[in-house]
Amino acid sequence: MKYPPTAAQARVTEIFSSLQGEGTHLGEKHLFIRFEECHIHCGYCDELDKGGRVMTQDEVLAEVDRLETIEGPHGFISFTGGEPLLYLEFIKPLAAALREKGFRIYLETNGILWPALKEMIAVVDLVAMDMKPASVTGEPNFDRDHRKFLEIAKSKETFIKIIVCKTLVEKEYLDEIEIVREIAPETPVVLVPLSAEIEGHEDPELMRLLRHLQTAGARRIRDVRIVPRFHKILKIK
Ligand code: SF4
């Protein structure tokens, strides 16, 4: 990592109050803590160029308290990024301190760093994990890690997010659905269209693909949803 974190400090891109824009808690008011770096580079990522600044645990806690007072209550504190699990040494005690204050912790993660998840699952309330098809990200296949990750995550409320664009190879998608079916078949899978157009409902080809994947997935597991990124539609952070 460019800036190795410690238990005392980490690089934080931003802390802000907004609506949850993705997944099964869509539209809830959450307080977001965004960490700076990621260990992979998805071709579509729009977060990696955002710089951060060093913050201590006390500074983060003070900012959370300030925003909670002005804009709260928030349903969850969302750790996001980048990849928050890169900051295990920092976020584990932070999550514990926030839970002591009565907050619930929502961990938004790429679903790869399962040893770190294992270390901190006890202080997480909800895991929003990605499964990343290589045909969408341009990165290697992470299914072995996704499998181990879900094994750990399933002890808490969990949902899985799969980004879909027209380059998606269906077999990769079905392999990921199969992992869910084997390990935690009740887990909701959320298909997220990667397209500015579909968020305005104007790409029939992508919409057809999404409906096809939803049907194929729902023949194997119980809950497969199509949920566009709400914050992109509303043009909010
Ligand atoms: S895992 Fe998330 S933060 Fe990391 S590169 Fe991919 S989209 Fe960006």
What does the model show?
The protein is an alpha/beta fold. The chain has one domain: Aldolase class I (TIM Barrel), CATH 3.20.20.70. The protein has a nine-stranded mixed β-sheet with strand order 3-1-2-4-5-6-7-8-9, covered by helices on one side. Helix 3 runs parallel beside helix 5 and helix 5 runs parallel beside helix 6. The radius of gyration is 17 Å and the shape is globular. It starts with 8 loop residues before the first strand and ends with a helix. The site of iron/sulfur cluster (SF4) has 11 residues, from loops.
Structure keywords:
nine-stranded mixed beta sheet, 9 strands, TIM Barrel, globular, binds iron/sulfur cluster, alpha/beta, 237 residues
Write the layout of secondary structure elements.
Layout: E1 9-19, E2 29-35, E3 53-56, H1 57-71, E4 76-80, H2 88-100, E5 105-109, H3 114-120, E6 126-130, H4 134-137, H5 143-153, E7 157-164, H6 170-183, E8 189-193, H7 204-218, E9 224-226, H8 230-234
Parallel strand pairs: 2-4, 4-5, 5-6, 6-7, 7-8, 8-9
Antiparallel strand pairs: 1-2, 1-3
The structure holds iron/sulfur cluster.
Short description:
35% of the residues lie in helices and 22% in strands. It has helices at 57-71, 88-100, 114-120, 134-137, 143-153, 170-183, 204-218, 230-234; strands spanning 9-19, 29-35, 53-56, 76-80, 105-109, 126-130, 157-164, 189-193, 224-226.
